[in-house]
Amino acid sequence: MAKPRIVDAHHHFWDAERNYHPWLRDQPPIPFRYGDYSGLRRVYLAPDLLADAAAYDVVGTVYVETEWDPRDPVGEMDYVARLRRESGLPSVAVAQAWLDREDAPALLERLAGFDFVRSVRHKPRANPAPGDGRPGGMADPAWRAGFAELARNGLRFDLQTPWWHLHEAVDLARAFPDTTIILNHTGLPADRSAQGIADWRAAMAGVAACDNVMVKISGVGVRGQPWTVEANREIVLTTIDLFGTDRAMFASNFPVDGLCASYDEIYGGFERITAGFAAEERARLFCDNACRIYDLTPRGG
After folding, report:
1. Does an H or E element contain 200, and which?
2. pLDDT bracket for residue 264 (50, 70, 90)
3. What is the CATH number of the domain that holds 210?
4. What gap in Å lies between CA 171 and CA 138, rounded to an integer?
5. What H or E segment, with its residue span, contains residue 125?
6. Measured between alpha carbons, how far apart are the two ends of the chain, in Å?
7. What is the mean pLDDT of residues 227-252?
8. Which residues contact 89 (CB under 8 A, 6 or more apart)?
9. How far is CA 192 from CA 195, 234, 235, 238, 300, in A?
């Protein structure tokens, strides 16, 4: 039987022994949503990903910036270019860019010069809990001025923010309709209480109404709990219901989500949850949407 064909729409490679990633090198460790992340302080490159994903035909991948040394975001893409020459992966990349810095316009122009860079990510400042009503980073004029430079450079934006800031993402999407925004990690639905799910769904519905917003179904692990179909079925199906099968895509977030589950448990879970979908719908979620949204040519065409 042929292996299922996938494009992993969100993963990381790193070698913190050779390159400076503050969160992987410095002490003490930073607060992390999955808790202890000491298991990530190791080399993780293309052979490791392909070994983890051995049950699947990985025809393409999207590398996402790794909190590399913030003084040298171009250096990370130079490193990715070398990885591509050595292993053929990743297919495309999401680069680091600090949108609220004065050099943002020049930096975005340099990043767009890499023929494999499709998007950038700068996690906007977020409040620690939904009850905190202070504006987040997406409302900052300097940050938005940097964001305004994306379309001119043909770049998308990968947005990682908790669901209680998605009203700001709605405003951003409407203010910049020509920029594709790709919501990372399903809006981070960590609170699985009935009220937590209801509030997350309402926030997701708002941003899903914006046609220029896509979503990656990934990063849905919960600290201290196993990754199971039962735990994540509602999250996955609700996201697909809101965004449709044309604007959603599956991703591993490896090696980070390896803290919660194996690659097979995550992708096998996605397979089981969507078992009742039409074949063309599953093809879009597992492969085709990532190719279209990130302008990625899969191996084998």
Report:
1. helix 194-208
2. very high
3. 3.20.20.140
4. 9
5. none
6. 20
7. 98
8. 13, 46, 49, 50, 61, 63, 83
9. 8, 10, 9, 13, 40
Q: Which residues does 205 contact at the CB level (< 8 Å), separation at least 6?
A: 242
pLDDT at 275 over 80: yes
User: What domain range includes position 51?
Assistant: 5-293
What separation in angstroms does the CA of 145 have from each of 38, 101, 102, 128, 265?
36, 10, 10, 25, 41
Supply the DSSP symbol for 210. Answer: S
Could you tell me the maximum CA-CA distance found in the chain, to the nearest angstrom?
54
Statement: residue 179 has pLDDT above 80: yes
- Quick one: which H or E segment has residue 96? strand 92-96
| 298 in any annotated domain | no
Q: Is 12 left (phi over 0), alpha (psi -120 to 50) or beta?
A: beta
How many domains are there within the chain?
1
